[in-house]
Amino acid sequence: MDEYAELNRASWDERAPAHAASPDYAFEKFIADPEHLSSVVRFDVPLLGDIAGLRGVHLQCHIGTDTISLARLGARMTGLDFSPVALGQARRLAAEAGTEVEFVESELYDAVQALGGERFDLVFTGIGALCWLPDIERWASVVADLLAPGGRLFIREGHPMLWALDEHRTDVLTAEYPYFGLPDPVVFNDAGTYVQTETQFEHNTVHVWNHGLGEVVTALLGRGMRITCLVEHQSVPWDALPGQMERIELDEFRLADRPWRLAHSYTLQAVKER
Ligand SMILES: C[S@@+](CC[C@H](N)C(=O)[O-])C[C@H]1O[C@@H](n2cnc3c(N)ncnc32)[C@H](O)[C@@H]1O
Predict the structure, then answer these.
(1) Which of 39, 82, 139 best tests ligand 1's pocket when mutated (most atoms within 8 Å of CB)?
(2) Interatomic CA distance for residues 79 and 59, integer angstroms
(3) pTM for this entry
């Protein structure tokens, strides 16, 4: 495994149990109510449409709350992630919540092989997924190879303009990090995480990459995908700029002051031509 992936996986392995125990991921709601859906998927439903009966894969599924939500909307879902600890939490939740989902451990770039060459009607991903991947063209190849002809990619992701901003400033919006995908990662050393937790973490060095919107679209077009939806949103499902954001409905966050200044996240859909 590459050094970046080892570092990043150690960070995710350590954070997964804290995420599963936090009120933000709300495991208890999934267990108590068989119809409960994650806020992320509830946000997605208007653009996602009816997925009943589809064969779907959720790439970088983390602890499975969105994967389980998609299964509850009627898709037959597999979740894939490279963190065995995250997948352990995901399997436990699926069992306790009584929702049938398969979970597969794999590095993203090995997903086609790990999934046994199966082809899917729906590839679902996002919400902090692309930033962990150095090569967006290789990612687009994996997505295209996983889709059956006529199958669809659905991604809602943090906007690259948001990822470029300095999260430490609380007064102004400052472009600090690369907007474009550069060969070298941005290296963060951050002892925290994005949920409420008292856990102290030790594996805190991570390598991340931004991917400009044009780069993502062009990579998919280059793999024979037809873009069918590209919507930019004035909110994102985590407190991305602490001190500048307010929480709104569906556990989304947006700039408290004139949120229309910034595309916070985007939804992109693309279909693999028959
Ligand atoms: C921010 S989480 C995704 C969040 C997810 N949407 C959620 O909130 O449940 C990112 C996930 O990507 C996974 N990941 C990061 N790099 C990966 C890689 N190279 N291959 C596979 N999974 C990876 C991590 O283990 C983590 O579970």
Answers:
(1) 82
(2) 6
(3) 0.98
